[in-house]
Amino acid sequence: MSTPETSRYVRLRVEVVLEVGDEDAVTRAALRRIADDGDMPTAERVHAESAVTEDTAEALAYLVDPFSLVSEVPGVDLQQASWSCERIDYDPDSPEWDLDEDDDERSYDDGYGDDTAEDDDEEVHGDGGARGAG
What we know:
The chain is built from five helices and no strands. The protein is mainly α. It has a domain at 23-105.
């Protein structure tokens, strides 16, 4: 159901916590992805290789592709995506890891309302960062 006042754009927020059991495997996969990117300028390639070698979270950012998450969903076109990876302390039994808690306590500015809360996560853009599909 769509009315002229309803935006066709939807922001999908996904939070994933991964346990990295083999940091070397993640780093090698990221380095392969960088090596296979024939469009990446040399200076950017050198920087990317250094970054993924020094930080597994950075390597994951190069391996995650938001487009692949939605590319098979019928009726939608990815307009823009950004993603980040960071090392965290994780305790699944801690109340602070209640995933539904964020929905109750935070509001997000979606560009279509007066919500004023901002997402203050530091972003690490992998595989080119924000991208449009089209």
